[in-house]
């Protein structure tokens, strides 16, 4: 039986930082005390404080601006926050992640098609343009562009909570998403499916956008399922 993980000093400090932000009435964009002041306030060493700050930055609760200071992040008021802790990747996690996305993202694509504004369409096009330039092995850049496309589509749906769910899902499961990209291993096909979704959203065709998003995610899941069961 594994030993129950005990809260660390960094865990406690993270909670105290959040409490400082909440009780101090700080809003997104507000500047927080300096690293030195926070270390003195909480009676901790600078390395311990920095570890807690990195955790908070990973969830978007704070923003550390080089040469400027520490600021309250835009995500401090989010209802869903990603957990930055890494886990071992299992095949079942990949399939469960895709199952969740199949449930959530197709209806959001339909909603996006129904209310797409020009500036939002531009963001989708830019994400796919970037992806198109990285189909020959630059997987880190391709992954980021693809996730930007899915996040932007969810944002266009106009439901803040559902957008946060998708954003947190893709952030929490970033390692799994990168593994899925490697296993799917058909970057051109994946890109063409994204382009088809974009075309439906541009045409304001909600039914087609939903169908194409679902077909895309089901296609990915089918390939991943085959490959984790019968490794190449």
TrEMBL record:
Tree of life domain: Bacteria
InterPro entries registered for this protein in UniProt: GntR_C (IPR011711), TF_FadR/GntR_C (IPR008920), Tscrpt_reg_HTH_GntR (IPR000524), WH-like_DNA-bd_sf (IPR036388), WH_DNA-bd_sf (IPR036390)
Alphabetic keyword roster: DNA-binding, Transcription, Transcription regulation
Classification via SMART domains: FCD (SM00895), HTH_GNTR (SM00345)
GO molecular function: DNA binding; DNA-binding transcription factor activity
One Pfam family linked to the record: FCD
Signal peptide as annotated in the record: none
Domain HTH gntR-type, chain residue ranges per copy: 7-75
UniProt keyword annotation of Transcription regulation present: yes
Name this protein carries in UniProt: FadR family transcriptional regulator
Organism: Nonomuraea aridisoli
